[in-house]
Amino acid sequence: MRKSKRWLGRILDALERHYGVQTAVGPSEPYEMILFVNCGYPATDASCSKGYEALKREIGTELEEILAAPKSKVAKLLRLGGMVPEQRAERLKTIAKIVNEEFGEDLKLSLEKLMQEEKNEAGKGIRLAKKALKEFPVIGEPGADKILLFAGLAPVAAVPSACPAVPQRILSGDEDKNYAAGYRAAQEAMAAELPESFDARQRAYLLLKRHGAEICKRTKPRCEICPIREVCAYFERASGEARDNPKTKQSS
Known about the structure:
By secondary structure, this protein is mostly helical. The protein is built from 14 helices and no strands. It is globular.
């Protein structure tokens, strides 16, 4: 990544001035976070909140409440969160069953025990915790990282799953077209730029997520209204290419 010397921290300050202080949506306990992301489809904050709040109000989110509830009733409530409610109802029951049978009814405590392995080998606890989280429906690498960060388990450099290109564009002007490679590159860049603290990395996650949703979109980013375009490597490169383009020069 080209920019360094804590460029990202200054960029986040500018984003916060533009968007305001961001707060996380949804629960912050691992089991509840997994329920939440399965309560909506497509899984936006708005759709997941609608499904989750209906579930919490009408059935509850405790393990025994999810396991005992008729699947048809769960699916009816999850319709508020979007498409394929029957499939998502089955997933909620699977989540509750996994926590009940494989994690002694307490997912957070189980993850904390796995994290203790880190004392014996650098990074081992995080790898074990992420492997455990990825047993659950729709939880991949980005979801596992987010849970570890926002549940207060490990200050990993989580990257918003919908926009790994955002930190890449800002810092290097480029983005990897392969999702997995792009996610790793973005995570490495953020880890190098940000203090290893929960506050700093949660703040970065939320601001980059908001920026990716509103301006630095996956396709057709709105660079013309971007509050950080003057310090963004992507905008700098795009502007240079436009200046060097013969067609652009002819039309000007």
